[in-house]
Amino acid sequence: TIMAEQGSTPSPSDAPPAPSGPPPKVTTLGRAAAPMASSNSDFTEVPEFEVFGLTVPLSSVCPEYLDILDVDMMKKPEEINKMQHHTSYYHSDFLIVRRGQEFQVNITFNRPYDSDRDKIAVEFVIGSSPSYSKGTYIPVFPTKERQSSWEGRIIDQSGNSVTMGITPSANCVVGKYHMFVAVATPFGIRRTRRDKSRDLYILFNPWSPDDAVFLNDETEREECVMTEMGIIYHGSYDDVSERNWNYGQFNYGVLDACLYIMDRANMPIVNRGDPIKVTRKASAMLNSRDDDGVLVGNWSGDYTFGVAPTSWTGSTDILLGYASSKMPVCYAQCWVYAAVFNTWSRIWPKFSLRCLGIPARVVTNYFSAHDNDGNLKTDIILDENGKIDRNRTRDSIWNYHCWNECYMSRPDLPAGFGGWQVVDATPQETSDGMYRCGPASVQAIKHGQICYPFDAAFVFAEVNSDVVFYSRRKDGTMDPVRVNHSHVGRMVLTKTPLKMTRRDITDQYKFPEGSTEERTVLEKAEEYGCEREKSEPPVADVDLVLPTMEISLGDDFEFEVEFINRSNQQRTVDAYVIGSVVYYTGVTSSEFLFDTPTVEIKPNMSKKELVEVESKSYMRDLVEQANLNFIVTGKVNETGQIVTAMKVVTLRNPKIMVEVSGPGKVNEEMMATVQFTNPFSFSLDGVYIRMEGPGVMLPKSKYYSMITGGSSLTWTEFFTPQRSGTTRVMVTLDCPALRQVSGQASITIQA
């Protein structure tokens, strides 16, 4: 005691003994009467008998009691339940229906059912510790005199059989339920035993006006819930490319995989009927940054221990791989996160989102601002001579960025902010301590109401940031020398409903550049803390124009810079032409070109400067997606003004050819043939080819250790279509030296 009072440090012998053995198990004991149910796979046994003071079987006391002989879930694809609930495409052994809409079950008794004296209930249970008050235990009664939150009625009665209609509430928990049929007698309650064949899935229902995800547009609904084939847009603003993707929300096991992901997230069962909470949790669980979620992000170019993001063709392998291994899947970039999330919502309704029934679509934002600290400025630092200072330039502009939109009402926001919501699973910044983003109302983003949850300010900056060029003096002070208001958020694309074409939805995110509405929106965003660049540096009287080019991988080419003098006096520009190999995120991998021409331009004239680019200068450092970024900056000697221009050039990859035998018919074998020729003088090592087709072919892959320069390969695969309609067979080729080679063949399958 004296030592402690004097501030001395106790000796080691005075310290308490170190704990030994395993740490105590963390439980809810002491703060909750029972643990919160957070697993759809957990189940509490429901007693077969609940006897009222009797200890003998009911049959010995009352031989005429009503007994259940059989329960038919009417779950075949051609039967009424799956047809009316739009779930016929799901490959599942169980009944799958949607909430807020009636489905039917047929019950056979040992004698005719008598509504006057027989009391029955169909019971639904989800998760452990089922509770009526929490909506995880729901009894459904056949008479109007007694109803619960789910409605029930007798549709038909014939002999000993009764067809009962059951309507789940439009806000019930979404997931896998267990079903029982219970009969009440004067002596107690007897119910059916647990039978897995009577389990059923209940999904969100965009066809029901009472459901929070109701979408009152049949074409949009068909595209965003039922369509398996997606198109993801990438490339650059003036050179848009397409990537096909199989969402696979109906494939066997995908729905269970999505439910497992929610279980892995420990999401309370009672929250799984709220699309706001489901999508927010999903955006966190799709990445593995802080919760061992589905996908590991990798932008390094080294994919040694996994699959390159450009190699995936669909969501099925990813979701099933995660569910079976219980480990994050390697690797992903933004479009993979968006595509797999889109499956969840269509599944969860595609957990990947379509699978669960939530209308969802993948959206691409061209020139997407990142790392801007929550303000509305993307800063590019130049030295006094107008040359870019890469050591001090921290912000980046992605050539494109993919996210998701999910359709739902937003009762937590003022009227008018429901509808499409941005949800982004790519791990960029934390939100409430986790890597997730959204749901953020698209309408709130367009109108600058970025105070509303969730993460609207971050998305607003992605589409509205100004690109500000600063000139840094030797003393460290910086002056804005040019502000570009229109570069970021140049175009926002998604797939046109039920067509294989693109749809420009930029006007859903922002008002026209320079309009009165746009100025009002930016002022509103400033009120909520988004800082803008207020200065308006004078516009230089010399313009720079960079060309739009189509260049194949491995080509030599000329890069042309046009200087336009719009003044009545001669101008001289000391220019810097810098070419870099960049990731699609705008991050520089290496610099392959540096030229410093001095250009003299006569009054009201233009002059072109040609720069030779040899393939050997960029090929050795090329990264996936083969992007070259050209930045031209300079200083006008006569005025001291700074001129700038930027251009991203995506090199064209060689083609891979896909041919499919035809005509195709359901359940008749077909053949797909892949052909590829290595156009280079060097060999391609470690080549993977992947192939799949929605409704016709499950994912397949083939490995080639080497394809020598100038040689060709042919791969033939047989498959049997399971569904009629128009679809595609998609193929990707991937190796360390060549990424993002793809091809596809459209086919129509007859019934």
From TrEMBL:
Known cofactor(s): Ca(2+)
GO BP of this protein: blood coagulation, fibrin clot formation; nervous system development
Annotated stretches, region: Disordered: 1-37
Keywords: Acyltransferase, Calcium, Metal-binding, Transferase
EC nos: 2.3.2.13
UniProt keyword Coiled coil present: no
Active-site residues from the entry: C334, H401, D424
Stretches with biased composition (Pro residues): 13-25
A matching Pfam family: Transglut_core
Domain called Transglutaminase-like: residue spans: 326-427
Reaction(s) catalysed by this chain's protein: L-glutaminyl-[protein] + L-lysyl-[protein] = [protein]-L-lysyl-N(6)-5-L-glutamyl-[protein] + NH4(+)
PANTHER family on file: COAGULATION FACTOR XIII A CHAIN, PROTEIN-GLUTAMINE GAMMA-GLUTAMYLTRANSFERASE
Family designation: Belongs to the transglutaminase superfamily. Transglutaminase family.
Name listed for the protein in its UniProt record: protein-glutamine gamma-glutamyltransferase
Species this chain originates from: Cynoglossus semilaevis (Tongue sole)
